[in-house]
Amino acid sequence: MKGILKKKSILPGYGLSLGITWLYLSFIVLLPLSTLFIKVGSGSFNDFISAVFSLRAIKAYQVSFGLSFISACINSLFGFLIAWVIVRYKIPFKGFWDTLIDLPFALPTAVAGITLTWLYGPQGWIGSFLEANGIKIVFTPMGITIAMIFVSFPFAIRTIEPVLRDLDPEIEESARCLGASRWKIFQKIIFPTVLPSLLTGFTLCFARSMGEYGSVIFIAGNQPLKTEIAPLLIVMRLEEYDYYGSASIALFLLLVSFVLLFCLNFLQFWNKRYTGI
Amino acid sequence: MSIELIDVSKKFGSFVAVDSVSFSVNKGELLALLGPSGSGKTTILRIIAGLEKADSGSVILEGRDVTKDDPRDRGIGFVFQHYALFRHMTVFENVAFGLRVKPRKLRPNESEIRKQVMDLLSLVQLDFLAHHYPMQLSGGQRQRVALARALAIQPSILLLDEPFGSLDARVRKELRRWLRKLHDEIHVTSVFVTHDQEEALEVSDRVVITNQGRIEQIGSPEEVYFAPRTPFVFQFLGDVNLFHARELSNGELIFIPDDDSGVEKRVFVRPNQISIALNWSQKNPIPATIHYINTAGPMVKVELKDKKGNPLLAFISIEEYQQLNLKKNMNVFIGVKSHHTFENMSHF
Predict the structure, then answer these.
(1) Domain B3-228 belongs to what topology?
(2) Where do you find CATH 2.40.50.140 in chain B?
(3) For testing the chain B interface, which of A177, A189, A191, A277 should be mutated: the one with the most B CBs within 10 Å?
C-alpha cells in the first residue's frame, strides 16, 4: 500500500485528494446503498424471495425490463441514424438540432411526462387522431415505451457520434480501392468499428429507461400487473408501510443495475482489445 | 503504356491543385511524383485511383479509359500515408479483406485465401505477426501490412502516397531500399508520391517533378539531377548557391565584374561545386568570410558570406578542410568549379 502511494505521488496533494475522493464516494454512493443491504438483511431469505418474486413484482419487472429493452433497441437504431446524419451530412441549423438532442438530458422528467400525456391523450394532437383509428397510447405499454424513448435517446446518439466522427475517411477509401461495395464497407468496416459504442449506448439507454420514474408514471396509468413499472412498485410498497418489501425490490433493481454496469465495463474492455489504449 | 494522364485538371474551390497535367507510366516502372507540399502530387495520385474526380482530362489505365470509373473497378492497389489499416481486424484479416469482398463467383475459397495471404505476409516478412492487431505493430510493420493488403487483389497498378512519410529517418531508409528490392521482384507498375528528393532519386526509375499543380520536369534521376530544366528543379533537388555574374560575349563568366560589360546572368551552383582557397587566383576570385563550419558528416559544410553579405554554402572534403586549416571568421577566396544557367527565368 505504501509502495503504491509513493509511486503515484508525483503530483502534490495525492493523499488529501484521494482521501476526499474516498470520503465523498462513501457518503454519496456506498453508505446509502449499504443501508439497503442492512435493511434487507434484517428479514429472512424467504421474506426476501416472496417480496421480490410476488406476481405483482414479476409483472412489474416484465413491464420495466421488456419495455426498456424495446426502447433501447429503437433508440440504438435511430440514434445511429441521427448520429450518422449529424456527422456525415451538412444540415441547416445544425446547432439548433444539436441542442435539441440534448434537451431530454436537461428537462425535468415530470415536464416530459405531462407533455407526452397531453400530446398522446384522447384530447391531444396525436392522441385524438390515433384514438379515432382505434390506437390507444396513454395508459398502455406503448405510452410507457414512448416516455422511455424520450428520456433516453440522447445517450445513444452521444455515444455513437464521436466514434463515427473519428472514423478516418482514408479507411473507407482504402476499402473502396480493395473492391468493397458501399454495403460491404458499412457491414465490414463501419459497423464493427461503431458496434462497441453502439452497445454502450444501448446499455445506457436501457439503464436510463429502467430507472425512469418521473415521466413514466404520468403516461402509464399504473395499473398493477399491466402498466405498473418496478420503480413505482417500490413507492407503492412504501405507501403500504411495507418497508421491507420496498427495500427488497429496490435491492433487486440495484443488483440488476450492477450487472448492467458490469456488462458495460466488459464491453469497454472488449473494445480495448484492438484499440490498445 | 500502363498509366496515361491526358490534360488532367482539378480545382478545389478557387485553388488550382492540378493544372493540365499529362504524363505516362511504362509497364513495370517505378515512378516518383516529387514536389513540395501543395504542389498537387497527392491529388494526381488520387485522380489516378479514382478517389478524386478530375474536372477535365482523362485517365487511361492499361489502354482502358477509366476517367468515370469507380475506384473499386480500377484494380488499383493504394497505400496511404497513415496506413489506413482496419484496426478491428488482425493483420491476416486486413490482408484478406480484398479477397473476402470479391463477388461470390470470383472469391477464392477459405484455404486459397489462407495461402495467398500467408504468401503475401511472408513476402513482406511479417508472417509471424499474422494474428496481431495493427495497434500492436510498429510504424514500419504497419506500412508493410498496408502494402501486402494492397497487393492482395493483384493490382495492375500500385499507388503509394508518401509511403514512408510518417516513419523515422532510419526506418525510412531501410524501407525504401526494401521497396526497391520488392519492386524488382514483383514488377508491378508503381507510382509513389514523396516530398523527399533523396528518396525519389534513390528509389525510382523516373521522376516527375511537380510545382504549383504543373509538371516541371520528367526524367530519370540522373537527368533531373544533372540536367535540370528549370531553376525550380535545380533548387528543389539540393542546396544551391545563386550568383549574379556577367556573361561576356565570348561566353566567359565574370563573378566580380569591374564594369557593365556583357549581360547579367544568374548562375546556380551546387555547394560541392564550390572551391575554397586561402589566396586570390583566377580560379578562386570571389572574396568571402567563413561564418560557420560543421564537420560532422561525410563532407565538411562551410557557410560563408560574400562582400555584400549574401550567404553561400560550400561542401568540401575533410582532407581539403584539414589542409586549408579553415577557421571561423577567416577571409578566403572561393571559386566555381561548375555551374548551371537557365534561359527561361520566368520563375524568378
Answers:
(1) Rossmann fold (3.40.50)
(2) 241-341
(3) A177
Structure ipTM: 0.83
The ranges of chain B with pLDDT < 70 are: 1, 344-348
Average the pLDDT over A67-80 and give the result.
95
Q: What is the pLDDT of residues B225-238, one digit of tens each?
A: 999 999 999 999 98
Tell me the pLDDT tens digit for each residue of A169-206.
999 999 999 999 999 999 999 998 898 889 889 989 99
Architecture category of domain B241-341 in CATH: Beta Barrel (2.40)
The torsion region of residue B85 among left (phi > 0), alpha (psi -120 to 50) and beta comes to: beta
CA B160/CA B32 separation, integer angstroms:
9
Q: Which long-range contacts (CB under 8 A, 24 or more apart) does A46-54 make?
A: A47/A244, A47/A248, A48/A248, A51/A237, A51/A242, A51/A244, A51/A245, A51/A248, A51/A249, A52/A248, A52/A249, A52/A251, A52/A252
Partner-chain contact A171 B135, CB within 8 Å? no
The mean per-residue pLDDT over the stretch A155-166 comes to 92
Q: Which of A166, A172, A173, A174 to mutate to probe the B interface, most B CBs <10 Å? A: A174
Q: Locate the chain A residue with the closest alpha carbon to B81.
A: A170
